[in-house]
Specification:
Hypothetical protein af1432, disordered N terminus, 2 strands, Os01g0109100 protein, dGTPase-like, single chain, HD/PDEase_dom, HD_domain, two-stranded antiparallel sheet, globular, mainly alpha, about 230 residues
Length: about 230
């Protein structure tokens, strides 16, 4: 075997009759290269890249790649330590629901609502996956600005410590969203982020409106009860 060391192999005469194939080079266009480098598309629902989270109430919740980027930040993970019901757990040991669980649940409910809306009016309203993901993100991030013990911190603690404070968790949520996107370099378009914030504000308005409607119904019921009581008494 030593005689072959450093020696060039002899050419095969049969190979001289074979026409060599033309050498091809693979050229990648700039657009294709950009598409390859792009981490994910907004509105992508690839099952291989989703993450399953089990919830006691809603079962398995699938987090799409963009939602995972927000959930995996320390700003969102802090919601695990925020009690949904404030100090209620000190009286009722079972009331240990957190803002983290609540936010995941709202994310799932927003997805279910959009699925039904898309099923019955999707073509009429032009609902696409981007719209669905935008609404789901608004649900996921709607409480990210809450302080310790949730509403107790906002409505009871701050007014006593800082009289005249106008701090709200809604405003804090908007500030945190901008900070999270910049700090963690989350790939989301500015227009979509603005829509998420607008939906978040709209959700809060609807929540306050629903309370007003419930109070109106309660007042009407009390008036009817008062009229019936007065009729029976007199």
């Amino acid at each position: 075997m030593g005689e072959y060391c450093g020696a060039a192999p002899e050419e095969d005469p049969a190979m001289a009759l074979v026409t060599p194939l033309p050498t091809t080079t693979t050229t990648t266009t700039t657009a294709a290269a950009a598409a390859i480098k792009q981490p994910h598309y907004y509105g992508c629902f690839d099952r291989c890249s989703t993450k399953q989270v089990f919830d006691n109430l809603h079962g398995n919740i699938s987090l799409d790649p963009l939602a995972r980027e927000f959930v995996d930040t320390e700003e969102f993970q802090r919601l695990r330590d925020l009690k949904q019901l404030g100090l209620t757990y000190l009286v009722y040991p079972g009331a240990v629901h957190t803002r983290f669980e609540h936010s995941l649940g709202v994310y799932w409910l927003a997805g279910e609502a959009m699925n039904n809306l898309r099923l019955y009016q999707g073509e009429e309203l032009g609902i696409d996956r981007v719209d669905m993901q935008t609404v789901k993100l608004a649900g996921l991030l709607h409480d990210i600005g809450h302080g310790p013990f949730s509403h107790l911190f906002e409505h009871e603690f701050l007014p006593r410590v800082v009289p005249g404070s106008t701090w709200t968790h809604e405003n804090m949520s908007a500030l945190l969203l901008d900070s999270i996107v910049d700090k963690h370099q989350i790939d989301i378009e500015a227009d979509h982020l603005k829509i998420v914030m607008v939906i978040h504000v709209f959700i809060q308005l609807l929540w306050h409106l629903s309370i007003a409607i419930r109070l109106t119904h309660l007042l009407l019921s009390l008036r009817r009860m008062a009229l019936r009581t007065s009729y029976l008494m007199f």
